Amino acid sequence: xxxxxxRAAKRLRLAPSRSWVCSECRRSFVSSVRQRQQQxxxxxxxxxxxxxxxxxxxxxxxxxxxxxSVASNYDAMNDFMSLGIxxxxxxxxxxxxxxxxxYASLQEQQEGQRILDIAGGSGDIAIRMLDHATNINRDNKxxxxxxxxxxxxxxxxxxxxxxxxxxxxxxxxxxEANAEDLSAVKSSSIDLYTVAFGIRNFTHKxxxxxxxxxxxxxxxxxxxxEFAPQLSNPxxxxxxxxxxxxxIPLIGxxxxxxRDSYQYLVESIERFPSQPEFAQMIKDAGFLIPGQKPDGTSxxxxxxxxxxxxxxxxxxxxxL
Length: 320
Description:
The chain is of the alpha/beta class and 320 residues long. It has helices at 4-14, 23-43, 56-70, 74-82, 86-97, 104-108, 124-135, 151-161, 165-168, 205-215, 234-256, 259-270, 275-284; strands spanning 46-49, 52-55, 114-118, 143-148, 172-176, 190-196, 216-227, 303-306, 311-317. The chain contains 13 helices and nine strands. The protein is globular and about 50 Å long. It starts with a helix and ends with a strand. Residues 1-42 have low confidence and may be disordered. It is a peripheral membrane protein.
């Protein structure tokens, strides 16, 4: 009897613990779990964050973290990304748009352009736009709405614009908003929509383009300045890629103690559509593309490459 007790105890220890659940309850529980998993799979679609695949619901917060990190060093970051020539690109971008009302008859009616600068929290495009309108076109009425999803970037823009007369004169407003949902902006109320070095970070670029189309007046212009994934010269492209993926994250680590943010920014360029692909997206949103043939079958010069294609300017016009 005494020898049997240890063996029985051993069998008891080895036997798996069981709990009784009725078969109907078990089936109901399994069914509900599967249903929740299917719903979760449908709702939580994936997208890219640089080379990383993440759920769409996470991207906005991760991008926000990147730009909160680089907000105070935004110009330095663009210097690293563009080899220092982003300032010349921005100047050319603004000149090509020629913002401001040019005709005395319209100025007498005190009508200025309404410009919406998306992902423009740093304020550098807004200042250039207002400088050009004021100094070149003698227009003191043109107004810019600086919009950004990131409050840290908007704070940088406020700080920069506070040193100009434009803020005191009421010629600039600020809007914290997602470019994919500009419900705070009335339809057909904007003359010029600009986005510089921002659209590649959007989760749904097609939705942002649809919103751009909605808020623009008929005849209004969509204009985008963005880095391009491939340069026109293969040799220069190889050199630039090596610089981008090797040097820029390292510089970010040394200068800003933030390698990950700079690594993402480099990867985000690589994932952006090519110039023909993005021009097609603009067309699909309803815009007319400069250089498009009358039959609409192809696009010729629907964008302008800068510095052999390190960056490109895209434009679209909302039909009248």
